[in-house]
Automatic annotation (TrEMBL):
A Pfam short name: DeoC
Gene name linked to the record: deoC
Record carries keyword Lyase: yes
Protein name: Deoxyribose-phosphate aldolase
Record flagged with keyword Cytoplasm: yes
Pathway: Carbohydrate degradation; 2-deoxy-D-ribose 1-phosphate degradation; D-glyceraldehyde 3-phosphate and acetaldehyde from 2-deoxy-alpha-D-ribose 1-phosphate: step 2/2
GO BP terms in the entry: 2-deoxyribose 1-phosphate catabolic process; carbohydrate catabolic process; deoxyribonucleotide catabolic process
Length: 227
């Protein structure tokens, strides 16, 4: 295991709250926690972006919005519009779900065009592409990463945290091998303690999506279940 102090993991973390019933009070708490612990961003649904951006105005913590979440099965134009609107509202990063059904069917041009449209809508704002690895075989994961590498997206991301399972060390390592050193890899879903976080980083992750960031950076054990 690499030697890294728990507190030093803060800048890897997108502090995440994506529940459908998340309240403004919970979003405010998320933002306060991110500021207090120095997390890289808060990751929220696009409808929560204006409030989170207001709370974090002038702070280092970025606001990250999910797009086409959690299924990835919406119209490409809708995903691109959502991304553009989220950025206009204050999002500094976008995490989109790719078209999983098209990928599994081998419709790679559909997948490519979907990602590219959102990337164009993002302009200079970094785009992360969620693969939902638990629904894919290794060949499909590889194909998705190859497309993302060719389009030069900012990150590939393992999971929404809303499907059968989340990140695995094996998937992070596969994604890193395919995208190379220039593109980020975000491990998300089930990263809930220090040891798991370090294992993901050792495998090649450069960002962690988690609702257990405080437990990770304090070396505590997360309680309950969640993202």
């Amino acid at each position: 295991m690499i030697k890294i102090e728990p507190a030093a993991l803060a800048q890897y973390i997108d502090h995440t709250l994506l529940a459908a019933d998340a309240s403004r009070e919970q979003i405010a708490t998320l933002c306060r926690e991110a500021q207090a612990h120095g997390f890289y961003s808060v990751c929220v649904n696009s409808g929560q972006v204006p409030y989170a951006a207001q709370l974090l105005e002038g702070e280092k913590v970025k606001v990250c919005a999910v797009v086409g979440f959690p299924l990835g099965a919406g119209l490409t134009a809708s995903k691109a519009f959502e991304a553009a609107q989220a950025i206009a509202a204050g999002a500094g990063e976008i995490d989109m779900v790719l078209n999983i059904g098209a990928l599994k069917e081998g419709l790679l041009e559909v997948v490519r065009d979907d990602i590219d449209a959102v990337k164009q809508a993002c302009g200079t704002v970094p785009l992360k592409v969620i693969l939902e690895t638990c629904l894919l075989d290794d060949d499909q994961k590889t194909r998705a990463c190859e497309i993302c590498r060719e389009l030069n997206v900012a990150f590939v991301k393992t999971s929404t945290g809303f499907s059968r399972s989340g990140a695995t060390v094996e998937d992070v390592a596969l994604m890193r091998r395919v995208v190379g050193a220039e593109i980020g890899v975000k491990a998300s879903g089930g990263v809930r303690d220090y040891a798991t976080a370090v294992a993901m980083i050792e495998a090649g992750a450069t960002r962690l999506g988690t609702s257990s960031g405080i437990a990770i950076v304090t070396g505590a054990q997360a309680t309950g279940s969640g993202y």
